[in-house]
Amino acid sequence: MPRTQYQNFVFFNYFVSQSEIMTDESKKTLDQLQEIRSLMERSSRFISLSGLSGVFAGVVALVGAYFAKNYIDINFSGNLERVNPRYYSTEQIVDGALYLGALGLLIVIVAVIGGVFFTFRKSKKTDQPVWGSASWRMIINLLIPLASGGFFCIVLMSYNMWILVAPTTLIFYGLSLIHGSKYTLNDIRYLGVLEIILGFLGCVFPGHGLIIWAIGFGILHIVYGAYMYLKYERNA
Description:
- This protein is mainly alpha-helical and 236 residues long.
- It has helices at 3-44, 51-76, 90-126, 133-158, 165-180, 187-204, 209-233.
- Residues 35-44 have low confidence and may be disordered.
């Protein structure tokens, strides 16, 4: 082999070997960067939220809606538009507010207990901490719109605007999900948008607030929770 061809051959082999080394090093660097990114996301986002908690909350909401519907049918002839002093006594209205308020609070408490249970169960399986700066930031950002919506609903009831209470809870709940989604899984944002749309539909079509409420807090939660479980947890 002539000298020039031999030199080219040696240079070519050297170039190929160096390229392979650089490729291996690039892959290692990329893997390290992906691992660092994953660790940063885990530290900045609360990802232990379980999809089963959404399914459980949806079932609880549907059960609560059933009891609320029965109470409204028996005590207010199934029509919240007529809940005002012209048709019912102040005592009946106050009793209705206390009953439905207590029922709503009970639904929230039971749903939260179930959510905590399923979240702790998921955190043990995935070996991820439940409480941390990300989880506290998510809770605070969820509570701000929720608390605002709760006070606004009390104002609506004080003016006997009961018909707007159910859709209002959906709107503020959707806002809280969007507000807190930046500290947890992004999929929650889409659930929040759907809740807001349903809430405005309840305002546009008065008299169907409880049905729309059951769809938003019940059916949507079940569908969303099942989707999240199949996407993130089934094969974990």
